[in-house]
């Protein structure tokens, strides 16, 4: 059975919401254990108002098999509108295609991928709090990226967010700066860092380690000035590693929160209106980067940065 038929079914039935995704995932698992042909009547509740056997606990049990801990639907799609019709049509499709056990496993992975994409499409949230500084706002944003990274093993949301925020800011100061994809390694491309500007090599990381320090030492040997931009609670780690390797006095280490906040305030001349203009420029710059690199994990940030404009407008 081809996945194309499943994708066509998904599109034609609009299976994009959390309830329908939760329901179809459980139905696929149930159908895989049933005897073909599937009898849709076996999946009706007594009053035929809901699909039988669906629950939040059952849905999460399947998701956890794929190391997904984030809750998809508290009721597992049991009360989702239109799921009754989806169930009957899906049973008809399965009866027609008659997938093997191996096919069912492949189909389940398809639905899991769709659920991952659903989670990944949700924008990181940032409240426009008048008492919230830009430093705190960026910190909260990175924390959300870190949490989503834990929920989706193998993805690098926090690192991508950090690097592309740096890229957006640098692009405003120096429009000619080369922007590379967040997943591009330095050495294979011959670059000294994530960004090379003049005699400076800028490295973006959420976890400074020995390999990065060795790269910074090579920067120095090659006549470059290394700068590490990391998250606030990793600044000391970077300094300690550099000190242990004997070159701390030739290195700069900045945290991303202060890097953005200081630049926005300075270039905004500590004025509310000009600060808002600077953040507007950041949005424009960021959107250009998204178009250029097409980095999916960070695409959600355009919404967040717009909310930062609201925040900045309220700062005194």
Automatic annotation (TrEMBL):
Q: Its domain of life? A: Bacteria
The identity of this protein, by name, is: DUF4928 domain-containing protein
